[in-house]
Specification:
The protein is mainly alpha-helical. The chain contains 7 helices and 3 strands.
Length: 217
């Protein structure tokens, strides 16, 4: 009997250390997903910095709880979740709404304790020299006739910010494309092209946007 008890204890001790990290990892993934939804759907108006509500940073999970906007473990009693469920947020003027899948992720995140959003992982610094070297190499490979029309943009400053999430880069890449195309004289959409492995440096040909034409439209 004692032998069986010893075996059971040993078996349990082998299992528990593996199950705890797996649960912790799942909570980290869930918190990251919830943060990404808030970043995509809410942060533009609620960043806590000269926005519609300067005191409200939707990406600060501690602030969400302490301000009463989130009730840990109780999504049905959470004011912020109620606004999303009732489709009152984002404002009706915003066409892209929180999807049912996104709403479920936020509900689960609150239900499971509204764990803190994980901090960005450390990454290698990208120097200005790295950026200029990539641009130089790209110019060397370009046709001689094309070089005068090439212009470059970089997201290096965001990437080097230790508080910046890598996953948010796609939002800024989309913003860059939307900006240059909104200033284009042509109807065709032309997406800036990344010239580096990290996707931080982008090249455009101004002829694609009719910016080279010296004429009145």
């Amino acid at each position: 009997m004692r032998f069986l008890t010893l075996i059971a204890v040993l078996f349990t001790s082998l299992i528990l250390p593996d199950s705890a990290p797996a649960d912790e990892k799942a909570q980290t993934v869930l918190a990251t997903q919830a943060r990404n939804i808030f970043k995509k759907r809410c942060w533009r108006c609620h960043s806590g910095n000269q926005t519609n509500d300067a005191s409200f940073d939707v990406l600060n999970s501690v602030d969400l709880i302490e301000s009463g906007r989130i009730d840990k473990g109780h999504p049905e009693d959470s004011y912020l979740f109620e606004l999303i469920v009732k489709n009152r947020m984002p404002p009706q003027a915003v066409q892209e709404r929180v999807t049912a899948k996104e709403g479920e992720i936020i509900r689960r995140w609150i239900k499971e304790g509204a764990n803190a959003f994980p901090k960005p992982k450390p990454r290698t610094f990208v120097s200005l020299e790295n950026v200029l070297t990539s641009i130089r190499d790209h110019l060397k490979k370009a046709d001689r006739d094309q070089r005068p029309y090439l212009r470059y943009f970089t997201l290096q400053n965001l990437y080097n910010n230790p508080d910046f999430y890598i996953g948010d880069l796609d939002l800024y890449r989309a913003a860059l494309s939307k900006t240059v195309n909104s200033l284009s004289w042509k109807k065709r959409i032309v997406v800036p092209k990344a010239i580096d492995d990290l996707g931080l440096i982008y090249a455009i040909d101004i002829r694609d946007y009719d910016w080279d034409a010296n004429k009145i439209h």
